[in-house]
Amino acid sequence: MSGIRIAAAGLVALMAWQGLVSEVAAQTATRQPAPPGAQVYFHYPIDGLSVPERFTVRIGLRGMGVAPAGVNHARTGHHHLLIDTDPGPPDQPIPSDYNNIHLGNGQTEVVVTLPKGRHTLQLLLGDYNHTPHNPPVMSPKITVSVR
Asked: Rounded to two decimals, what is the model's pTM?
């Protein structure tokens, strides 16, 4: 019986070590290069605009193409809309939560609903793994007033 316990403990340790190695490898993965001059921008809304509580954000992209998350093609990515937040570390995947909206199916527009008041919006292109390109392709931050 003790031999089985030792083997099981060894297997658990090996699995934990492999998980740690894959996590470290994922965190240090090579970022996808962005072509010079690549730009992501807002078609709508524009900075300083007053918008209703529910509105459509329309996104433009120059110098690159759009591909769904998980599709690894050079010079492509998918959009992320950052609401009332700053971008995270450029070598880490973009979080997915209320403030970081993933458009992982390759969408170029999204309907958002925000409470009344001032809000900041920013666009950030992510690669097939949701990690920003090198250098990051991101829009300037804009401010909208929800009426």
From this structure: 0.81
